[in-house]
Automatic annotation (TrEMBL):
This is TetR/AcrR family transcriptional regulator. PROSITE patterns: HTH_TETR_2. Residues 42-61 bind DNA. The keyword DNA-binding applies. The keyword Glycoprotein does not apply. Keywords: DNA-binding, Transcription, Transcription regulation. It comes from Streptomyces bangladeshensis. Gene3D superfamilies: Tetracycline Repressor, domain 2. PANTHER family: HTH-TYPE TRANSCRIPTIONAL REGULATOR BETI, HTH-TYPE TRANSCRIPTIONAL REGULATOR RUTR. Residues 20-79 form the HTH tetR-type domain.
Length: 215
């Protein structure tokens, strides 16, 4: 009797292109609405902005915490990409830092601010990996500017990201798009204050990136 061969393991089906696009639209819409309205915005409003049905949102994200975590990870991953581009530049180290800060604001890093008090797991492996990548890369960008004598030495990665997040959020009670007009102007004012030599002594200690996400 011929030996029976075990059936080849079936590969997990790849998500359809339209399913991936729907997921990306949901995350993008959630990121925008979290910036505008905070993390408690109704999920059906997010679905409406994304142009998908409520069932599509819940099929991708079984609960609010899963969506919040995905938004935070997506913001941090896009921030990593901006940091990698800045590190690939040669020349003026502070100019590379400036370009990174403005790019991070455009990626809606301000979406992280409302998440600080959220209930999602801040120690989820995906989030930890993203956070460590951001910390390492931004520390390197800032380190190059400090080594060049262009960046004041008493600021940390958390200082930078917290201020960028705060300055790129629309003020309470204002239209988000109207607030966007002033983001880069105010960020440049902040960046000018980071230049060495420092003209004042900062109170407290440099902020670590963990303080941006840990409750």
């Amino acid at each position: 009797m011929p030996a029976m061969t075990a059936p080849a393991p079936r590969k997990a089906p790849r998500p359809r292109a339209d399913a991936l696009r729907n997921r990306e639209r949901i995350v993008t819409a959630a990121r925008e609405m979290f910036v505008e309205h905070g993390p408690d915005v109704p999920l059906d409003e997010i679905a409406r902005r994304a142009g998908v049905g409520n069932a599509t949102v819940y099929r991708n994200f079984p609960d609010r915490d899963a969506l919040v975590r995905e938004v935070v990870c997506s913001v941090m991953d896009r921030t990593v990409e901006a940091a990698e581009l800045a590190l690939a530049e040669t020349g003026d180290a502070f100019a590379a830092l400036e370009r990174f800060v403005h790019a991070a604001a455009d990626e809606r890093i301000s979406a992280l601010c409302p998440m600080v008090s959220s209930t999602f797991d801040h120690n989820h492996p995906d989030l930890v990996a993203s956070r460590e990548s951001v910390e390492r890369l931004v520390e390197e960008i800032m380190g190059r500017a400090k080594a060049a004598g262009q960046l004041r030495p008493d600021v940390g990665v958390g200082d930078l990201l917290i201020v960028v997040s705060q300055l790129s959020r629309p003020p309470a009670g204002t239209d988000c798009m109207r607030g966007d007009r002033f983001v880069h102007r105010h960020l440049q004012l902040f960046l000018d204050g980071l230049r060495a030599p420092a003209r004042s002594v900062l109170p407290g200690e440099a902020v670590d990136i963990r303080e941006l996400l840990d409750s």
